[in-house]
Amino acid sequence: MRHQILVPTDFSDNAWSAALYALKLYANTPCTFYFSHAWTFLNSGSRGHISSSYIEPLIENAKEQLEALKDRAKLESTNSDHQFETIFSYGSLMDSVEFANKEHNIDLVVMGTKGATGAKKIFLGSNAVTVINKVRRAPVLLVPKKSKFETPKKILFPNAFSRFFGEEIKRVKQLAQLHGSSIDILHINKKDTLSDLQNSNLESLKAELADFEFNFNWLPDYNSKAIAITDFIKDNDINILTMINYEHSFIENLVKEPIIKKLGFHSKIPFMVIPRID
């Protein structure tokens, strides 16, 4: 199976770090990597007309940067079954992602996150939030600033077991198959027992993961699920965090609110957000 991986780029160090992570994560897997750049002219101020003689060199420079990025990725790759393409488009990042999804049947979008600045800490950033909220076909793998690749021996999958597991769970399994990772299932709840529905969904999940190494972990209710997840990641040497982006879920709350540094969700590991299938 050949994976189709989309790596949007603004030519920043963060975007390149995400590209490197993707190359290493899929080092042993046939893939086509699509490096995409959405070009938009910004900061035009009050000028009513911008001449083509000014715009065209900017566009050509961006196209050259995109080709150079592709060549750089080829040099970094260690797999002859890796192929590389570029997608240059005009408009928004989201337009570019949607075009790639439609034209190339993308399996995964890999993005770098810039990290937070200032007194309040926003974990993801506006571009990542936009993609998470609007992409409904492919998972989004968010690679934190300066994140270095480590073979993902352990994947974390927090879940409330409030919904039946459908096609979404296949994304977790596909990720685990890349490097034979074990899966840590994390349930955070102040109640001592599960409801009948939760038990049924848990049994369904166990059946889905029968061919994988997995562990079930139960934590008491924290004041903040963000703290609980962050602590579990640190204490258990987790390499990748995965979650399904259900409506009214923890992720939905996470992407809406600025989070204070000392209380926040500051994972230093990649975070895969899996879109729900309606």
UniProtKB/TrEMBL annotation:
The protein's name: Universal stress protein
Limits of the UspA domain: 1-144
Family the entry assigns: Belongs to the universal stress protein A family.
UniProt-listed PANTHER family: STRESS RESPONSE PROTEIN NHAX, UNIVERSAL STRESS PROTEIN UP12
InterPro entries assigned to the protein according to its UniProt record, in alphabetical order: Rossmann-like_a/b/a_fold, Universal_stress_UspA, UspA
